[in-house]
């Protein structure tokens, strides 16, 4: 049987979901490409940074995972340098990869806004593992310093600033504050001198989320001793001092920035039209017209719900768009009609330190505290265990090949 070659660019939430939804169909041969050898579970970064999870909880080896599906899925670790849709080819550093259909799922990176002077030089993002790793080390160092050091800290010496009070900023702040709160008895009360401030230009935290989520989250953050500054515009960042537009000066020892994203989109000729986040603007079927065999899913593309409202760039949306595209590719091959993309947000869960979360499902079910934590855990554990099972299969296959050789 002549197989269709599907190339998927990006081994994130969208890319992996596309593989899972296409692989059951023997008409396809799949190649997954990523610059890293691992899938990074960004949604768990907050726990990794605060020392609750370890590196093996937030990474999945892509080669072993792909091997778990058998010979029809191949993993290529390479930097994607561009695509040539006319020639139906992806350009990698050292090879060119032909395709029948292409799914772009290259996600997004932190946008260190160029108009905020010094932001890029003085702050960290968490959308890649190396940065999260550096942040974790710094957090540990801070706690250690406080345990060791009997003298009173200078202003800002123990101050962590988080620019951006969206989902990731809020979750990271809460987890760190909870670690400090929980362990200050063993670490020494000095550890409590570590201060965390969340800064956002919007009038409230978690812009775009429901009143219930915003209110419940604010109460929890305040109970953890986190300072929240809203309507606060960062003007410039110097080494050790954040300057706000209203002339407030915030001394800090470590700053992370989660206030914006910019899409990763492979270069292509002619250049494609994008929105202000650099996201690709697709047609109603998530294709990159006029190339009807090139699709985009996840954070790298502008996605809207049925009413035309923008969907937030989340793992949930990335997965839904990937499922849609996988289904559309199958239908087109069979000559069946394909409906335009439509999706809505089923719910949101915000992890707020330790065994506490706030959540909302289908706009009507509202939970907070331990129950919400358990529900969130169920979702994330389910995702992780699914990947882990596949890895185990892949690993066994690899070992069997090694034994024969
Ligand atoms: C701290 C944090 C907490 C979050 N919490 C939640 C949450 O609770 N719920 C939720 O739904 N979402 C959450 N998100 C958002 C979620 O992680 C993203 O929306 C999701 O990762 C998007 O998936 P994606 O597949 O589009 O891109 P990604 O997961 O970012 O994957 C893109 C992949 O493409 C690869 N890539 C990019 N460019 C290239 C290139 N040129 N060459 C080779 N490879 C390339 C990257 O290495 C990466 O593996 C959170 C994000 C963060 C940072």
Describe this structure in words.
By secondary structure, the protein is of the alpha/beta class. It has 2 domains: 4-35 and 78-110 and 261-345, FAD/NAD(P)-binding domain; 119-257, FAD/NAD(P)-binding domain (3-Layer(bba) Sandwich). It has 10 helices and 23 strands. It has helices spanning 13-22, 45-49, 55-58, 62-67, 119-122, 129-148, 167-187, 211-223, 315-333, 370-404, and strands spanning 4-9, 28-34, 38-40, 59-61, 73-77, 80-84, 89-92, 96-98, 101-104, 108-110, 159-163, 195-199, 227-229, 234-238, 241-244, 249-251, 254-257, 261-263, 287-288, 291-296, 347-351, 357-361, 365-369. A 6-stranded mixed beta sheet has the order 5-2-1-9-20-19. It has a 4-stranded parallel beta sheet with strand order 13-12-11-17. It has a 3-stranded antiparallel beta sheet with strand order 6-7-8, with no helix packed on it. The longest helix is centred in the C-terminal third of the chain and has 35 residues, at 370-404. The chain starts with a strand and ends with a helix. The mean pLDDT is 90.
Radius of gyration based on Cα positions: 22 Å
Question: Unreliable stretches, pLDDT < 50, 5 or more residues?
Answer: none
CATH architecture of the largest domain: 3-Layer(bba) Sandwich
What is the tally of helical segments? 10
**Alpha-beta content class:** alpha/beta
Hetero groups: flavin-adenine dinucleotide
Strands ordered across the widest β-sheet: 5-2-1-9-20-19
Q: What is the makeup of the main sheet?
A: 6 strands, mixed
Q: How many strands?
A: 23
Share of helical residues: 25-40%
CATH homologous superfamily placement of the largest domain: FAD/NAD(P)-binding domain
Q: What is the arithmetic mean of pLDDT?
A: 90
What do we call the CATH topology of the largest domain?
Answer: FAD/NAD(P)-binding domain
Strand content: 15-25%
What's the domain count?
A: 2
User: Quick one: CATH class of the largest domain?
Assistant: Alpha Beta
Global geometry: globular
């Amino acid at each position: 049987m002549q197989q269709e070659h599907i190339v998927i660019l990006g081994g994130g939430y969208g890319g992996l979901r596309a593989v899972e939804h296409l692989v059951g169909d023997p008409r396809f041969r799949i190649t997954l490409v990523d610059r890293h050898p691992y899938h990074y579970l960004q949604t768990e970064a907050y726990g990794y940074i605060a020392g609750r999870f370890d590196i093996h909880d937030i990474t999945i080896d892509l080669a072993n995972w792909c091997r778990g599906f058998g010979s029809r899925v191949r993993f290529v670790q390479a930097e994607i340098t561009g695509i040539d849709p006319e020639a139906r080819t992806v350009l990698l550093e050292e090879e060119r990869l032909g395709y029948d259909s292409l799914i772009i799922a290259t996600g997004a990176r932190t946008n260190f806004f160029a108009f905020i002077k010094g932001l890029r030089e003085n702050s960290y993002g968490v959308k890649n593992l190396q940065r999260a790793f550096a942040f974790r080390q710094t957090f540990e160092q801070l706690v250690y310093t406080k345990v060791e050091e009997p003298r009173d800290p200078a202003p800002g010496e123990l101050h962590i600033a988080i620019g951006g009070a969206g989902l990731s900023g809020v979750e990271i702040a809460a987890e760190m504050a909870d670690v400090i709160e929980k362990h200050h008895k063993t670490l020494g009360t000095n550890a409590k001198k570590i201060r965390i401030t969340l800064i956002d230009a919007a009038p409230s935290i978690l812009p775009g989320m429901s009143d219930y989520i915003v209110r419940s989250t604010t109460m929890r953050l305040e109970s953890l001793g986190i300072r929240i500054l809203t309507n606060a515009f960062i003007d410039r960042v110097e080494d050790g001092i954040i300057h706000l537009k209203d002339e407030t000066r915030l001394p800090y020892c470590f700053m992370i920035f989660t206030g914006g994203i910019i899409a990763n989109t492979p270069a292509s000729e002619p250049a494609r039209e994008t929105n202000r986040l650099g996201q690709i603007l697709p047609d109603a079927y998530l294709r990159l017209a006029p190339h009807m065999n090139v699709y985009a899913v996840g954070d790298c593309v502008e996605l809207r719900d049925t009413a035309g409202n923008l969907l937030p760039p989340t793992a949930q949306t990335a997965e839904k768009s990937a499922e849609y595209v996988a289904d559309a590719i199958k239908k087109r091959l069979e000559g069946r009609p394909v409906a335009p993309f439509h999706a809505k947000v089923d719910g949101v869960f915000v992890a707020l330190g330790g065994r506490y979360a706030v959540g909302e499902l289908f706009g009507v079910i509202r939970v907070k505290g331990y129950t919400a934590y358990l529900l969130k855990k169920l979702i994330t554990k389910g995702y992780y265990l699914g990947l882990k099972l596949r890895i185990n299969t892949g690993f066994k296959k690899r070992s069997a090949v090694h034994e024969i050789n």
